[in-house]
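Tutorial, part two.
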Amino acid sequence: FGAVVAAFALAATQLQRQHIAVDVLVNSFPKGVKRILSTFNYLIGAALFLLAASQTGALATNLWKVHELSETLRIVYFPFVYAVSFGCVVIALVLIIELLKILSGEGERA
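Running the prediction step on this input gives:
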């Protein structure tokens, strides 16, 4: 259950800019370099979360097909794993939107 809550909180945290950012070194760079680094970071982040979504979705499908249950309470796993996969898709979409803002010149961190 905790993984589902964390997966859903990722996108909201990114939108509200409440995550930890280390800007000590980056603040000394010129605006163009900051823009390139932000573009790279958002692109890599989106790709990694899309990969995580794909892998957790595949795992959920496998758990569904084999009817996997928790040992003690006999609760099915796959809905929770699909929820984590969905949370990964949402954070990837948020990162892609942030990337498009940077590329269009609207981004805060450019």
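The chain has a mean pLDDT of 89. In part three we will examine how such features are distributed along the chain.
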